[in-house]
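Hey, can you fold this one?
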Amino acid sequence: MRARPTGSRENNQPQRRDDEPGISVEGLGLAIGDALVIETISPKRKLNARLIGYLAGHSVVITSPTKEGKDVALEQDVQLTVRGFVRKQAYAFTTRVIYKSRQPYFYYHLEYPRDMVAVEVRKTARVHVNLPVLVDTEFDIGIGDWPKTAVIQDLSTRGAGLLTDQDLGHKGHELILKLDIDISDIRKKIELPCAIRNRLVVDRGPGAKYLYGVELENLSDDDHLTLSGFLYELENDH
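Sure. Predicted structure:
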């Protein structure tokens, strides 16, 4: 179940279009504890961290990055791309490690970014896709074994349209969509909790097919950021 935007990327550096104004860290209104995605270039890795704070013109301070719950050490001067999501904006900037501390806990000072990219994520925008997905549930609703299979036909940060030949339930049933997506050549596994809002039978008979409309609910910070970045790349690749 792999989904990848069309088009290619030379690297994972954020690029600002000529019509996009520059913005600063303080201008974004970031808050202590905000979730960050830290991308290393060599080797290619995607790590999770939290914002501790920043001093304009000096540094951005983050917690020790983690991968699958384990701390990942970063070397001095290593080049990074930092991505995040605040309010209705997805942002990114390049930086490097300028200081790391082990006391009283692991944390890192990153070079204060001289330039950033920030784009508005339109929550109502739906992108037409064709993504295979596993559909699971935490509840026994009496309709056979789980997980089941479906194809996502349209997707946004708010919801999705699913086409399947299997019964996924009725309005109000809670599901989990499980899929792998690629962002800037980095594969990411995401789980999207959702609830069925409507169901339409589009092909009756022995090979009946159903079209489900689902609303995404309670996404983790990381999955919300990943989904927003994926949709942004799809929109800008077409």
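The CA atoms of residues 192 and 219 lie 6 Å apart. Let me know if you want another pass with a different chain boundary.
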